[in-house]
Structure formats: structure tokens, C-alpha cells
Design goal:
Length: about 120
């Protein structure tokens, strides 16, 4: 189970780190063709979302690797799951149902990590 959780943590961290870096380094206008949701938010909000995603990605890996404040790993996973719930709510409101698949997959991965890392499971 530990190996599976590490694999999931690595994949989720890569996904959110890439998304976060893109949102923090690219102007909103350049993101809009692939992420039309950015048109509904200020540039500052888009950058804030990117920073939170990048920090969440780091939180999935660094505490567990260093052994320092390891409780932050499932907390980061829970936060990323919450981001996906909020993103899904936004996409439903806008009628962008195709985006729900991505939100759902990322939510499930984050939820499994949070569940697996919060408790002292016997496996």
C-alpha cells in the first residue's frame, strides 16, 4: 500500500506542480485558449490558484520525504481534493461537463492519498 501511495503522490504532485507553475508564470491571456475559466477571474486569482496548487504538490512530497511534519502530506492531499470539488462546482455551473472527468480523477487520487496517509492502516 505504501508503494501505491507513493506512486499516486508522485503523479498527483507532478500534475499539480505543472498546472501551478503554468498558472503562476504565464499571463492570463496565454492560458485562456486551453483554460477558458481564467476569463472569469482576475489575473491575481489565477496566480493565487497556481501558487496554492504548487504548494499542495510540494506538500504531497516534501514532508513525507524529509520526515518533518509528515501530517502535512495528507493535509495537502485533502486540500487538493477540495480544490477539485470547487473546480467541479464551477464547471457544472458553467455547463462544462467534459472537465468533470479530470476533476473527478484528480479528486479520487487525492482522496485515496489522504485516506491512506491519515491513518495507521495495517497494510
Amino acid at each position: 500500500m505504501n508503494v501505491l501511495l507513493w506512486i499516486l503522490q508522485g503523479l498527483l504532485a507532478l500534475a499539480f506542480l505543472a498546472a501551478g507553475v503554468m498558472k503562476t508564470t504565464q499571463p492570463k491571456e496565454k492560458l485562456a485558449p486551453n483554460m477558458p475559466w481564467v476569463n472569469d477571474f482576475s489575473a491575481g486569482t489565477v496566480k493565487f490558484v497556481g501558487i496554492v496548487e504548487a504548494l499542495g504538490a510540494l506538500g504531497l512530497i516534501l514532508p513525507a520525504v524529509t520526515g518533518i511534519a509528515v501530517v502535512l502530506t495528507p493535509v495537502a492531499a485533502t486540500g487538493l481534493a477540495l480544490i477539485m470539488v470547487l473546480a467541479a462546482a464551477y464547471h457544472v455551473r458553467k455547463g462544462e461537463y467534459a472537465s468533470l472527468v479530470t476533476n473527478g480523477v484528480l479528486f479520487l487520487i487525492a482522496a485515496v492519498i489522504a485516506w491512506g496517509r491519515f491513518g495507521p492502516w495495517p497494510f
